[in-house]
C-alpha cells in the first residue's frame, strides 16, 4: 500500500477491466504519496490516463477523482488538460473556466483556456482574450507568441510586429522570435528589414 508504482499499476489494471470504483480508490491513494505530490498528483494521474484508449471512461474517472477530492484548482486544471488531449473540448473549457474562477491570474490556466478556444474554432475570442491580458501587462512569453500569431492570421501585421518586438526585447537571443520577425517582414514586403533579421540569425549560428 505504500508503493506508488504498485498503486499506479493496480489502478490502471482496475480501470482496464472496467472496475472504475476500485481504480478511483487507488488513484486517491496515489494523490497521498509525497513523491507524487511533488510533481502535482492530479497531472501525474491525468498523464497516466491520457495513454489509455477508452477516452470517455478516462474523462469520467478523472472527473470523479477531481470532484470527490474537493474539486480543487489543481484537479480541474489536470482534468482540463486531459480533456484537451482527448479532444473533449467542451469539458476542457468548462473545467478551465472553473480554474480561472478559483485562480483568476493563473497564467498556466489562461494559456490553456486560450488554447481551448483556438482548438474549438473560436480564434476571434482567443485573440480578444489574450489581447486583454497582454494590454494589462500580464501576458507571459508563451501567451505573447500565441497572440502575435493570431494577429498574423487576421492580417493585423502591425500588432503582430509590436508583440514580437516586445518578446525580443525581453529575450534578445531568442532566434525563433527573430525568425518570426523576418518572416513577418517578408510577408509585408519589408525585404530590407527581413534581411537584417536574417543576418542576426546567421551571426547567431557562429556563436
Would you mind describing this structure in some detail?
The chain has 207 residues and is mainly α. Helix content is 78%, strand content 0%. The protein contains 13 helices and no strands. Helix 5 (55-67) runs antiparallel to helix 6 (73-85), helix 6 packs antiparallel against helix 7 (89-102) and helix 8 runs antiparallel to helix 9. The relative contact order is 0.06. The model has no long low-confidence stretch (mean pLDDT 93).
Principal-axis shape equals elongated
* Contiguous runs where pLDDT drops below 50 for at least 5 residues: none
Order of secondary-structure elements: HHHHHHHHHHHHH
Tally of alpha and pi helices: 13
What oligomeric assembly is this protein in? Answer: single chain
Describe the sheet with the most strands: none
Q: Report the span from N to C terminus.
A: 53 Å
Structural class: mainly alpha
What value does the Rg take, in angstroms?
A: 21 Å
Average pLDDT taken over every residue: 93
Please bin the fraction of helical residues. over 70%
| Fraction in beta strands | under 5%
Total strands: 0
Amino acid at each position: 500500500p505504500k508503493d506508488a508504482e504498485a498503486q499506479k499499476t493496480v489502478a490502471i489494471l482496475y480501470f482496464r477491466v472496467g472496475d472504475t470504483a476500485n481504480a478511483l480508490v487507488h488513484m486517491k491513494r496515489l494523490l497521498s504519496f509525497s513523491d507524487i505530490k511533488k510533481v502535482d498528483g492530479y497531472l501525474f494521474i491525468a498523464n497516466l490516463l491520457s495513454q489509455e484508449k477508452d477516452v470517455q471512461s478516462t474523462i469520467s474517472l478523472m472527473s470523479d477523482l477531481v470532484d470527490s477530492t474537493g474539486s480543487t484548482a489543481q484537479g480541474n486544471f489536470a482534468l482540463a488538460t486531459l480533456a484537451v488531449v482527448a479532444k473533449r473540448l467542451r469539458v476542457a473549457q468548462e473545467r478551465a473556466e472553473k480554474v480561472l474562477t478559483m485562480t483568476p491570474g493563473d497564467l498556466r490556466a489562461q494559456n490553456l483556456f486560450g488554447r481551448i478556444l483556438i482548438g474549438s474554432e473560436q480564434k476571434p475570442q482567443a485573440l480578444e482574450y489574450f489581447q486583454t491580458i497582454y494590454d494589462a501587462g500580464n501576458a507571459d512569453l508563451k501567451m505573447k507568441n500565441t497572440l502575435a500569431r493570431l494577429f498574423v492570421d487576421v492580417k493585423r501585421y502591425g500588432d503582430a510586429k509590436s508583440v514580437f518586438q516586445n518578446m525580443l526585447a525581453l529575450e534578445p537571443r531568442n532566434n525563433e522570435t527573430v525568425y518570426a520577425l523576418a518572416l513577418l517582414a517578408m510577408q509585408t514586403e519589408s525585404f530590407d528589414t527581413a534581411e537584417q533579421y536574417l543576418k542576426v540569425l546567421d551571426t547567431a549560428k557562429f556563436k
